[in-house]
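Lab manual, section 2.4: Encoding a predicted structure.

Procedure: take the sequence of the chain (480 residues), apply the prediction step described in section 2.3, and record the output as structure tokens. A sample record is shown.
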Amino acid sequence: MSASPDGQAPAQAPAPAPALVLQMQRMGDIVLSFPLFLWLKRGAPERPVWVVAEEQFYQGLKAVSPPVVYAPWTAVDHLPASEYSLLVNLSHRPEAAILAGGLRAATRLGPYRDQGDHLRVGGRWQLYRASLTGNNRHNRFHWVELNALDCVDHRQIASTVFDTPRTPAPGKDRVGLFLGASQEEKRPPAAFWAALAHALQRRGLAVVLLGGPAEKALAAEVRALHGGTLADFSGQLSLEQFMAAGQTMSLMITPDTGPMHVAAWSGLQTLNLSMGPVNPWETGPFNPGHYVLGAGISCQGCWQCRFVRPRCRERFDPEQVAYLAWKLARGGRPMPPPGMRLYRTGRSAAGFYQLEPVGRAAPRAGDGLGEFWRGAFGAHFGLWGQDVPRRDWLALAGAHPKLARSFARGAARLYGRVAALLPAGGALPPAFMESWPPMLRPAAGYVQMALENADYSPDSRDECLGLLGAVLASVSSVSS
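Recorded output:
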């Protein structure tokens, strides 16, 4: 270190203010935040990244987590003493919003309580994510991407290469069945698991039941229905032991649940049985090379099932799933079972999460609408130009011309309705989003959320009319 002209050693530059991430959800949400931690460290290597999370979930993940400083919820009393260069609240818990509003931060993203005790959302992408509550049917941005797009250069997201699953070693014919999920309708019933275990064993595969303490009763029911020899490690493995056990397996079959993300992050190939009120575009395995199996019905990817029993869950056949799993475990070429949709996780041409269809199933109208809305919001937020949604619209209109004409007429009505209300100083009615058909709700929901979040400021009105005007311009060629 050289001395300054007056002979004094130069003062060291002050350490950069840390970034703080509030992730007070479950295990899977923490794992889906790992890429954000990674990107924050790469973007500013000298800046510390602090994470407030539930200790029961993060302790076992430290071994595979990017290098951040974790703090439990019980330690939040120490947080107000610091000022943060960035605060990102990824939690929907009320106490997280209160904490996010009470800390000093140069940039505040996600839900927070302002000084007037109003709930606000900082960041356009976080606002878009908030507008998906009950309204996510056509969303095509993964939660990992939505966690980061407000504070990470999208080119860094698109250029990051994540590991694909390990290639199963010859003779590793053990398949894990993770039984549980946060909601009963998101997982198969015990009878399905028992029949699947039998079908896998008939094909020469060893089967291991997996789960946490909450799955012990379910595992006992599966064993009783199975009636034979079945290894059961539910409630017996720590998170570190769970990941170590995954090294001995060729595949894990699992509903959409936190351990699925742990397995995928640690390199174990997963077959996600996507059923119930889940959208695999948002919460499917993020790393490329995993598989997602869903029912070939139009309501797949809902926020909340409107049927007494999820119809999608009844479409899963244990014999068909066993044959597919056998193909995957042995490195064969998988094909979707009849009436089902099989996807392989990958990346789009722009570098974003993609569910790549396996087989020759014809594209559904819902898939075309999802691609269009991804293109429209991506263009609105500056990821790419308006040529992308126009291209996606031409593809949708070519495959589904009747739907396209109905959509274009609805888009014109939506623009006209909002344009008539806003200059007059009026507010949108509380149920504005629900008054539009599902294919138009991505725009209706975002507009309502954005206007309310900004108290109908002139800038928010201009932004919303700009979004709707761009959508209308993209679809106007087929409006008649």
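Check your result against the sample. Residues 401-421 form the longest helix (21 residues).
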